[in-house]
Amino acid sequence: MITINELLYKAIALKDKYLEMHHENVCFYSTTLALIMNLPNDVCEAIRHASLLHDIGKIGIPNNILFKQGKLTPKEWEVMKLHPAIGAELLINGDKKLGIYNLSEVVKVIYHHHERWDGNGYPNGLKGEQIPIGARVIAVADAFDAMTTNRSYRGSLSVNAAIEELKRCANTQFDGKIVETFVEIINEKEYLKYDILLSLKQPSSCLI
Ligand SMILES: [Fe+2]
């Protein structure tokens, strides 16, 4: 039987093809990071599930805002910023009814994935280690994939340029230690040692 997570994953993939690929890529980068950082197993699991659904709340964002080609107006941006809370709300309902494994940690990570290390993020403006570790890991993986992926309205950055941007934002937007580890993983191609992770890119094996 299809789980609620699989259903949500398919629903967002139908609405936005880019998000399907983005969720898979962020799952790959953030799960690699979590394993190399030696995070506890339950945290790695939460990161794996949350990364695949982190932008699920975009399902509730109107198409004229989600697919807008140009820059969002401040008002539209406020609507876009609701997506972590919408995503968390979708999963909290699933948690209560279906008892999905470890969902409360997953919900927390999804809810806080746009917080910033300096406290200037959203939805709650959490700062530093107040932000769940899973959300800090996903924030780095999310930004890297967004910068290195082509969109219809802008080209992608090279891997080197994206790494420089992550370094520039270390200890302001991102947890500096996580950026440091991520840069090592990409530069040293550490992710190639984790063959098993390649299979995790497939949504069926990433989902519960
Ligand atoms: Fe997001």
Give an account of the 3D structure.
This protein is an all-alpha fold and 208 residues long. The chain has one domain: Hypothetical protein af1432. Helix content is 62%, strand content 0%. It is globular, with a radius of gyration of 16 Å. The protein starts with a helix and ends with a helix. Fe (ii) ion (FE2) binds next to loops.
How does the SSE layout of this entry go?
Blueprint: H1 4-15, H2 17-36, H3 41-53, H4 63-66, H5 74-80, H6 83-98, H7 103-111, H8 133-147, H9 159-168, H10 176-187, H11 195-200, H12 203-206
Helix pairs in contact: 1-2, 2-3, 2-8, 2-10, 3-7, 3-8, 6-7, 7-8, 8-9
Q: Work out the radius of gyration.
A: 16 Å
Question: Can you count the helices?
Answer: 12
Give helix % range.
Answer: 55-70%
CATH topology: Hypothetical protein af1432
> Mean pLDDT, nearest integer?
85
Stretches where pLDDT is under 50 for at least 5 consecutive residues are 98-102, 200-208
Quantity of strands, as a count: 0
Q: List ligands, each type once.
A: fe (ii) ion
Brief sketch in words of this structure:
The chain is an all-alpha fold and 208 residues long.
Give descriptors for this structure.
single chain, 208 residues, mainly alpha, Hypothetical protein af1432, 12 helices, 0% strand, globular, disordered C terminus, binds fe (ii) ion
